[in-house]
Amino acid sequence: MSIKGKVVVITGSTSGIGLGIAKGFAQAGVNVMINGLAESEVIEGILEELRDYGIKAIYHGADMTQPAQIKDLISSTVAEFGALDILINNAGIQKVAPIEDFPDSSWDAIMAINLSSAFHTTKATLPVMRRAGWGRIINIASAHGLVASPFKSAYVAAKHGVIGLTKTTALECAEHNITCNAICPGWVMTPLVEKQIEDLALSRAMSKAQVKTDILLKNQWTKKFVEVEELSATALFLCSQAAQNITGTNINVDGGWTAA
Ligand code: NAD
Asked: Which atom of ligand 1 is the closest one to the Cα of 225?
């Protein structure tokens, strides 16, 4: 069974991993609803690139901190495309600080964007998938959904929460041909990580190259950054017929990080 012609919503797909997944799905002939915070020229450029694959691509600017806007993202997708087969919860932000100094507003924003948004999209999407009798939900968690690092309290808590939501969702829809799984990437070179490299280089008086090798790739045993194309391929596999019995679990694409 091919997923050509199906419809995917990818939150936070104007950059990094979400954008890579959008391109991979467009290449596979899947129509794409993209979302994220970006300048209109950037969005137009992305839509043009996606449409070059011969699929329908639309942008919705829902802010993932706003449940009403998230609901509108899902209902607009169904209205515009006539279906919603695949949901990829990917939007995320990061803040690095010790707990004592962690701003309350950053905790709230990370919980809203990295965790609660996946609840709201899933809640609005499940009735559509149940009616269609088929669906795939993929949550982009993180190695930090399985293990912790200091100074990332909100991120680690939210990503552990995403894994819990993934398991619960899987059980609630298992008999309806709907699967729900998490992908847990290790370090991927995206704007979210580039910012952390800059901050670490400054705070530790190290070069950016040293930060990459001595800090980031220290626990990534392959000593390679994960490529967005690898995550897109993993997501496509989870949407295939071969993965119909894979549900409620996580696939770690982390260079061995969480094995140690
Ligand atoms: P990124 O910063 O490149 O992209 C994040 C996307 O989320 C962007 O499109 C941004 O516009 C969007 N976004 C942010 N706030 C939003 C909001 N309020 N409403 C709507 N969209 C919003 O980051 P990335 O590295 O591609 O991260 C994507 C996901 O992958 C995140 O959930 C992140 O936690 C996860 N992840 C990243 C890595 C990594 O090493 N880069 C590792 C593991 C997990």
From this structure: 40
DSSP class of residue 85 equals: -
One DSSP character per residue, 177-203 reads TEEEEEEEE--B-SHHHHHHHHHHHHH
For the segment(s) 7-188+227-259, the CATH number from 3.40.50.300, 3.30.470.10, 3.20.20.70, 3.40.50.720 is 3.40.50.720
Structure tokens of 162? 């995403």
**CA–centroid distance, residue 92 to ligand 1 (Å):** 4
- pLDDT tens digits, residue range 164-185? 999 999 999 999 999 999 999 9
Which tens digits make up the pLDDT trace of 123-140?
999 999 999 999 999 999
